[in-house]
Please model this.
Amino acid sequence: MEKKTGELQTEQFMKRCRENRLKVTPQRLAIYQELVGSSEHPSADRVYRNIVRTNPTISFDTVNRTLLTFAEIGVIDTVESHSGVRRFDTDLAPHHHLHCVQCGSITDFSDPMLDTLPLPEAVNSNRFQALGRRVIISGICETCRQSARKE
Model:
């Protein structure tokens, strides 16, 4: 029987934790599964508010530290946000983001041409080693534009 995407992601998550000598606790698993189930690029606060419903003894500090640890070991990525709040992403494949400056939504998009943009000479120098690239396009999402039309 073929495994579902979520199951495969969870197995890869558990493997990466073990490789980094990080115990797979029920809290860590719950936090990761909350992220995998979200397409919002949630903040630590959003993850905490969602997870505390089913794990009432978990603290915000635990959620926040766990998310930072996950980013350090490479099972999630941190995402830029206009509000200055750190947000998180479980999609580690190359992709880019559309940021709505009104509501703060972050939407993924892919474009092979953007993935192969040549890096400026300053980046290619010996002073900096690029590990990845992500283009961020700021604007106003369709939902916010429609709301503005109704007003």
In short: The mean pLDDT is 89. Strands lie at 77-79, 87-89, 96-100, 106-109, 136-139. The longest strand covers residues 96-100. Residues 24 and 69 are 12 Å apart (CA to CA).
